[in-house]
Amino acid sequence: MGAKENLTYGPPIPILIPCRPMAEIEQKCTILLIEDEQDFAMGLRDAFEFEGYELTSASSGEAGIATAADLHPDLIILDLMLPGMNGYQVCEQIRRRDKVVPILILSARSQESDIIRGLEAGADDYVTKPFSIGELLARVRTIFRRVSVSQMKPREKIEIGDVTVDVESQTAQVNGKPVSFGFYEIAMLQLLHENRGTPVSRDDILDTVWGIDANPTNRTIDNFILKLRRKLEPNPAAPKYILTVYGQGYKLV
Ligand code: CA
Predict the structure, then answer these.
(1) CA 166, 182, 198, 251: dihedral to nearest 10 degrees?
(2) Which of 14, 31, 36, 121 could crosslink 88 through cysteines, CB 3.0-4.6 Å?
């Protein structure tokens, strides 16, 4: 934070390079927040701008979908409880147009079924309300860190049964149909693939994929495994490739 903050003191420096379109090659920084509670949205904007991100907010699902199409944000933070179109529908609509942008959902509902529904609608991660700004910022930092790490990795393919997952495009063909993966799903697959045949503990998955400053639970891991199985396993209820090793974790075979 320090150096970046110091830049804001003194006379304004003429901005020669706008954030867009240079953001394509510079550090990714634009966040779209879709949230109808204005006070909450303003509070988040202050916190994110202080951290050096650019945050644009939309107060309805419809406005959020339109802004996402115009702005091409690097990350979308989406509240599930919105007037009119709900967050799940918004998530699905955005995903139809953009398979890759990370979507983090905010949910007052901590029930697992709501979280799974959000992940199935195409979200990559979730934070349940109430949460601290610090926790949300940590999640966002983790997302951007993962995005930049995965962009530096060479093109990689992961074979799972008859399916080949293309890590760079985050896609695979499953039974002739294109399937896309969120970046956490890809990061988990990469980790399991690197340790193929050996169980990886939930703690190791948390440390490697999420990092120590984010704070998801083991349940988060289980939800992502469920999501991967639904996409990759012929019968997700009886997995052949992504196995649970009792007391040890998960193993890719
Ligand atoms: Ca709301």
Answers:
(1) -110
(2) 121
